[in-house]
Amino acid sequence: MARYVEHTRTWEFDEDRSRWEQILEVLLSRIDSGEWGPKFKISEVKLMEEFGVARPTIRKAMERLREAGKIYTVPNLGSFVSVAEGEEASSSSTSDE
Predict the structure, then answer these.
(1) Sequential pLDDT tens for the chain (97 residues)
(2) Could you give the CA distance from residue 87 to residue 1 in angstroms, rounded to a whole number?
(3) pTM of the prediction?
(4) How far is CA 40 from CA 76, 82, 85, 88, in A?
(5) Rounded distance, CA 40 to CA 15, Å?
(6) Which residues contact 84 (CB under 8 A, 6 or more apart)?
(7) 61-67 long-range CB contacts below 8 Å, 24 or more apart?
(8) What are phi and psi of 24, to 5 degrees?
């Protein structure tokens, strides 16, 4: 998995695996840990700057997140973290009270 190097403020990638796969792991960990909550807007430009990669690399990782149901994309608005099924049910049940 890619590693963030604090003193240089850059990411180091394993050369034996593609960068998009390593970025995908980082993004998945951010979503699964709750660092990026439901409906968090994901900026491709900011990810390109953070990881130092081109847009197609970010888009490939984002495509896999979409396929896994972790994010959704709204045309002309961007990509957002999906709301987990359990969270949808609990938020709708609390609004009925």
Answers:
(1) 788 877 667 889 999 999 999 999 999 999 999 999 999 999 999 999 999 999 999 999 999 999 999 999 999 999 999 997 765 544 444 444 4
(2) 29
(3) 0.81
(4) 16, 8, 16, 15
(5) 30
(6) 38
(7) 61/20, 61/21, 61/23, 61/24, 61/27, 62/27, 64/20, 64/24, 65/24, 65/27, 65/28, 65/31
(8) -55, -45
Three-state DSSP state, 75 = coil
b or e along 17-41 (b: 16 or more beta carbons within 10 Å of the residue's beta carbon)? eebbebbbebbeeebeeeebeeeee
- At 65, give phi and psi (nearest 5°): -65, -40
